[in-house]
Amino acid sequence: MVSLGSRASSRVELLRDRNERGALRVEDLDYNRHGRIADEVAAQFFPSDPPQFYRVPSSYNKIDPIKDALCDAGFIDLRIAVLTREKQVSDIGAFAHAMVYGNPLIDMIRTRSGVDPDQVVNALGEAFAREFGNPGRLPQRAILFEATRP
């Protein structure tokens, strides 16, 4: 797992390489329960070596460490927005399929072998239906950072 410091540095470097004004968007896994549920369901199939996909990109979501990293890197005129919405999902099974097959989680499942990815999709669809209904309503939150490079 990437440490907070190196993750902060990599995100700040990404902004540093952009034009004068840059933006950084992070997911709030504490609020976006679908990512946490996907992580927990996948881990049930691989208890000794759980896939890390949903843990790494979504774990960097605390405002103060990101703000501090941007300020320490010399960025000014920092603006932070917390964006919240509720997303209607008409087919929770299709959403579960996308959460498994639509990102590197599928590769992590395949390299661990012994589990058909569709088993993970089915378990995830059931967990999502319990949590959000089918059709479902998913609460979502993103944190947007904008900063200027002097």
Record the SSE blueprint.
Blueprint: H1 4-16, E1 21-27, H2 33-45, H3 63-72, E2 76-89, H4 92-101, H5 105-112, H6 117-132, E3 136-148
Antiparallel strand pairs: 1-3, 2-3
Helix pairs in contact: 1-3, 2-6, 4-6
What is shown here, in short?
The chain has 6 helices and 3 strands; from the N terminus they run αβααβαααβ. By secondary structure, it is of the alpha+beta class. α2 packs antiparallel against α6.
Description:
The protein has 150 residues and is α+β, with helices and mostly antiparallel strands. The chain has a single domain, classed as Rossmann fold, CATH 3.40.50.150. The chain has helices at 4-16, 33-45, 63-72, 92-101, 105-112, 117-132; strands at residues 21-27, 76-89, 136-148. A three-stranded antiparallel beta sheet has the order 1-3-2. Helix 4 crosses helix 6 (117-132). The longest helix has 16 residues, at 117-132. The model is unreliable at 1-6 (pLDDT under 50).
